[in-house]
TrEMBL record:
Domain of life: Eukaryota
InterPro entries: HET (IPR010730), HetReg/Transcr_Mod (IPR052895)
Pfam family, one: HET
Full protein name: Heterokaryon incompatibility protein-domain-containing protein
The Heterokaryon incompatibility domain, residue ranges: 33-125
Amino acid sequence: IRVLDLQPSLSESRDDPIRGRLRVVHLTEDPGFVALSYVWGRPSRSPRAVYCNDIPISVTKNCWDALWHLRDPILGRGRARNTDGSITLWIDSICINQSDKTEKDSQIPLMNDIYSGARSVCVWL
């Protein structure tokens, strides 16, 4: 599966881009991630972007809001941080290529293993 190492915020501005690094991990190797569960919501007329490996990925406002809060070391406290201050997350809309049907068909059956293998699950309503 892919996970996102969400970088900590550099400022408190909502204009500060959300950035992270996508990487491939194996569930059998206990990769240590937090699974994010959230309400997708309706697609926005002006979607927000998360920069993964410097490539913008459109996400819903609700996903963007959750990530904005989780990347903040104070607002997102209580979540396991990596030594660089990042937090490793699995988020279906980012970690599964939503435009690749073959990938979605192979990843969706893994959802039970993904949530079971997470160190914790964060629910964002």
